[in-house]
């Protein structure tokens, strides 16, 4: 296909050209199936439409030219490794309506710099943002309940994190090897501060150690 041609994705087992550069979703698409755009390394532009509910496993894995995505408010789940290895992805706009960010969904998106997780999200699963080396700002909102195992491990540019009071479970190594993490703020409501210190922040900043406090 021509480089400047927009490919309209309608689902239903439609074949996707491996050299696709721009894709626009048809409003009838409610789910991106597993591996639909896997290794489409030339893909730069993705336009989702209102009505999309789920992005399936590895749907955009290794789409290394995508720089920005905006997710519709109808989307409720981003599945396993959906955007894993999208190394040029700099911006992700999450909207209210999303409930779960799956295992490794944005793992190794090394150009991602800032994310705001909406209050509708209740779970950030294992390794969701693991090895996002450029990630320097993470805003978590009230409503979040679970931060999974290694969810933000090796986010080497992260300096500070605030844990909302709604969080009831933080997995082992959630912030492992966040070498520049210097401040952890726990909003009143999360009480397992000792556990957080011992197993969640292993191999984080050693000198000085991260500052922990409740507000």
From the structure above, extract its key features.
single chain, 215 residues, 4% helix, three-stranded parallel sheet, mainly beta, 24% strand, 1 helix, seven-stranded parallel sheet
* Mean pLDDT across every amino acid position: 90
Major pleated sheet:
7 strands, parallel
Proportion of residues in β-strands: 15-25%
Global shape: globular
Radius of gyration: 18 Å
Question: How much helix is in the residues?
Answer: under 10%
Gap between N and C termini:
56 Å
User: Tally the helices: what do you get?
Assistant: 1
Number of DSSP-assigned strands: 17
Oligomer: single chain
- Which ranges are low-confidence, i.e. pLDDT below 50, for 5 or more consecutive residues? none
- Given the helix and strand composition, which structural class is it? mainly beta
Order of helix and strand elements from N to C terminus: EEEEEEEEEEEEEEEEHE
Strand order of the largest sheet: 3-5-7-9-11-13-15
If you had to describe this structure to a student in words, what would you say it looks like?
By secondary structure, this protein is mainly β. The chain contains one helix and 17 strands. The strands form five sheets. The chain has a seven-stranded parallel beta sheet with strand order 3-5-7-9-11-13-15, with no helix packed on it. Strands 1-2-4 form a three-stranded parallel beta sheet, with no helix packed on it. A three-stranded parallel beta sheet has the order 14-16-17, with no helix packed on it. The longest helix is centred in the C-terminal third of the chain and has 8 residues. The mean pLDDT is 90.
């Amino acid at each position: 296909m021509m480089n400047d041609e927009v490919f309209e994705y309608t689902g239903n087992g439609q074949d996707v050209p491996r050299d696709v550069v721009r894709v626009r979703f048809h409003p009838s698409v409610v789910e991106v199936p597993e591996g639909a755009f896997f290794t489409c390394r030339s893909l730069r532009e993705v336009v989702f439409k209102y009505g999309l509910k789920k992005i399936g496993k590895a749907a955009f894995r290794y789409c290394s030219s995508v720089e920005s995505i905006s997710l519709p408010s109808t989307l409720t789940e981003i599945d396993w490794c959906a955007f894993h290895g999208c190394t040029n992805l700099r911006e992700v706009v999450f909207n209210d309506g999303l409930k779960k960010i799956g295992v490794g969904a944005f793992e190794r998106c090394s150009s991602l710099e800032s994310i705001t997780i909406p209050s509708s999200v209740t779970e950030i699963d294992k390794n969701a943002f693991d090895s996002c080396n450029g990630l320097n700002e993470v805003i978590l909102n009230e409503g979040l309940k679970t931060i999974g195992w290694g969810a933000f491990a090796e986010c080497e540019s992260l300096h500070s994190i605030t844990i909302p009071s709604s969080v009831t479970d933080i997995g082992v190594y959630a912030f492992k090897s966040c070498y520049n993490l210097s401040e952890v703020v726990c909003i009143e409501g999360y009480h397992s501060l000792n556990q957080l210190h011992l197993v969640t922040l292993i191999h984080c900043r050693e000198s000085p150690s991260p500052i922990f406090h409740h507000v």
